[in-house]
Amino acid sequence: MAPSKASPPHRPETIIHRERKRQKTLAAKADQAPPPSPKETRTRTALCLLKGFTSWTDCPVPLNLVLVREHYGDGHQDLWALMTTADATNPAQPKADYGLRATIEERHRLLKCFYDLSDFHSRSLNVITAQVVFILLSYTLRQWQLWRLRQEAELAGKTRQLLQRRLDLHRQYVVIYHQHAYAQLPLVTFTREVLELAPEARAKALAQIRKLEQSFLTPLENLRAPP
After folding, report:
1. ∠ CA(191), CA(193), CA(194), 5° rounding?
2. Sequence-distant contacts of 102-111: CB under 8 A, at least 24 apart
């Protein structure tokens, strides 16, 4: 079992306790899971690097080929190859780079579908270039922030719209005025305060809320003075 990462210092103790409990449950389920099938268990991988292929007449650039043979527990083998123009000396490096393909494709999907990278509103090349550059900059800075705060696992795969909806809760406030003072409470905090009131006080608050609701739903009259 891989060692657990240290929790960020700003994380509340309740969240840390919940995460430890979740990891313990996942470890218990992993111990109870049946062993993987020998057909799907890779026992070893053999690599061979062949450099300087020029037999492809339509491609004048020399090509390097990495032959891969993967052995599995039931005895069968998978044979495949990678072709690259990179001048690699370690045959494992091109294979490791190819392993990043799924992650790169997922990042491209997020950028195009949820970060408006391809939603251009202008035909000007300068405006399109600026849009692409600033979106990529903001995305890169956000990923760096997640890495610094160790929140990659928590927010991975979350779209911008989902994060914005979660943040909108912090921008909805209820302002309570009394004489010459006022209090500004987030909507969720105000709701909790109302639910924690004594029954008599909660009944009075409910009556006031009903009056406000009725006044909000009443159509406004034409307040302009007649000509």
Report:
1. 65
2. 110/157, 110/159, 111/135, 111/136, 111/139
Q: For tokens 């997640």, name the residue.
A: 146
- Is-above-0.90 flag for pTM? no
Sheet containing 42-53, strands listed edge to edge, beginning at the edge strand earlier in sequence: 42-53, 63-72, 77-84
Q: Cα(70)–Cα(82) distance, rounded to whole angstroms?
A: 13
Q: Give the model's confidence band at 190: pLDDT under 50 very low, under 70 low, under 90 confident, else very high.
A: confident
Indicate the domain borders of the chain: 38-101, 105-164, 172-203
Per-residue pLDDT reduced to its tens digit, 123-142: 888 988 888 888 888 888 87
DSSP secondary structure letters along 48-78:
EEEEEE---TT--S-EEEEEEEEEETTS-EE
Contact 90, 98 (CB under 8 A): no
Q: What are phi and psi of 58, to 5 degrees?
A: -80, -10
The region, left, alpha or beta by phi > 0 then psi within -120 to 50, assigned to residue 113 is alpha
